[in-house]
Amino acid sequence: MRWLAGLGAGVLLAVAACGSGSSAASGTPSAAGSASGSTAPPVASAGPITGPAGAASLATLRWADGAQLPVAVSEVGVAQLGTQVHVLGGYVGGQAHSTTHLVLDTATGRWRTAAPLPVRLDHVGAVGLAGRIYAAGGYGSAGRPTSVLYAYDPATDRWQTKAPLPVARTAAVAVTLGGRLHLVGGKGPSGDTGEHDVYDPSTDRWSTAAPMPTARDHAAGAVVAGLLHVAAGRPGGMTVHEVYDPATNRWATLPPLPHGRSSAAGASLGGRFVVIGGEDAAERVVYTEVDAYDPTTRRWSRLPDLPGGRQGIGAVVMGDRLLVPGGGPSAGGALQSKRLLVLASG
C-alpha cells in the first residue's frame, strides 16, 4: 500500500518498536492523551495470522502513527470506500453532534474535508456500499436517537436522503453483508434493543432480520467469512459474543470476549474478528486491548495493545492494515484525538 510504504515524512510519523503487552483480565486502562497525538510507545505481538486480508505474522505487527486528522474527533462513524476512509459526525471540541465529514485518500496520505452531513450527528453507523457512503441513525442535535439514513456520492460530493430506519436508534453496529447494510442493536426510544434491520440500496427499502439475542448498544461488530460477529457493549461492559448467519437467519453464541467493555471498534483482519480498545463508562477508564477471535479454533488471542487507550472509535481494514482514526483518549466525551493509528506488519 503506497500510502504507508512510499510516502514522505509526516504521513507515517512513527512506527512502534517491539515490547511486551499485558494480558490481565482486568484490562489495561489508559491515561488521557494529547488531542494532537504523540509518538507511539512499544507494543507486543505473537503468533501467526493469515487470511484474505493478506498473509502477515502477529510477530511483525506494529502500531504506527499515520497522517493526523485535521480535526480531533470521537464517537464517529468510520467507513471505507475504495481507497478512501470517511469519518462522519461525532464529538468535536468536547461538544456532541457535528456535521463533520473527513476523507483520507490513502493513495496520497492526505486528509480533506468533504460535504458535511445534512444534520448534526454522533454515534452514527457508517458503511461503504454500492459506490456510496451511508450514514445511519445516531444521536441527533436534540440528544435523542434518530431514524435518518443518508447516502453520500463521492462523484458529486453530495448527500441524499434515503428511506428512514424502521426504528430510530443510536450506537448500533453497522456492516455490509451480502450487498446490503445490516444495522444491529443500539439504543432506541425505549432503551437498548437487539433490532436487526437490513437495507437494500437497489430498492431503497428496509426489511427485518432475526434480532440479536442480547440487546445492547456501543457494541463492536464485523463480518468474517460471511458471518456477522458482535461482541462487547452496554449496559455495563459486556463480554457476550454472538454471530449471525445470513444463510439461516439465525444467531449463535460463541466464546466470550476476554475482557468486557463498550465503545470499542470491530474489524475483520486476516480471517479473525478483532475488537479494539473501548471503555468502562462507570469506572471512567479507557482500554488499550486488541483481541482477535479465530473462528477456526474458536479461541481469542491478544494482538498488540493500542499505544494509548481509545474509545468512541471505528476501524477499517485496507489490505492487511487496520486503521483507527481519532477517538476518545479518556472516558466520556470531554477529549478527542487527531491521531490516526495504523496496525501493520513492520
How is this structure best described in words?
The chain has about 350 residues and is an all-beta fold. Helices cover about 0% and strands about 40% of the residues. The strands form 10 sheets. It has a 5-stranded antiparallel β-sheet with strand order 1-5-34-33-32, with no helix packed on it. It has a 4-stranded antiparallel β-sheet with strand order 7-8-10-11, with no helix packed on it. The longest helix has 4 residues, at about 1-5. Mean pLDDT is about 85; it is low at about 1-25 and about 30-55.
Give the SSE layout.
Layout: H1 2-5, E1 14-15, E2 29-30, E3 48-49, E4 56-57, E5 61-65, E6 73-74, E7 77-81, E8 84-88, E9 91-92, E10 101-105, E11 110-113, E12 125-129, E13 132-136, E14 149-153, E15 158-161, E16 173-177, E17 180-184, E18 187-188, E19 191-192, E20 196-200, E21 205-208, E22 220-224, E23 227-231, E24 241-245, E25 250-254, E26 265-269, E27 272-276, E28 279-280, E29 285-287, E30 290-294, E31 299-302, E32 316-318, E33 321-325, E34 340-345
Antiparallel strand pairs: 1-5, 2-29, 3-4, 5-34, 6-9, 7-8, 8-10, 10-11, 12-13, 13-14, 14-15, 16-17, 17-20, 18-19, 20-21, 22-23, 23-24, 24-25, 26-27, 27-30, 28-29, 30-31, 32-33, 33-34
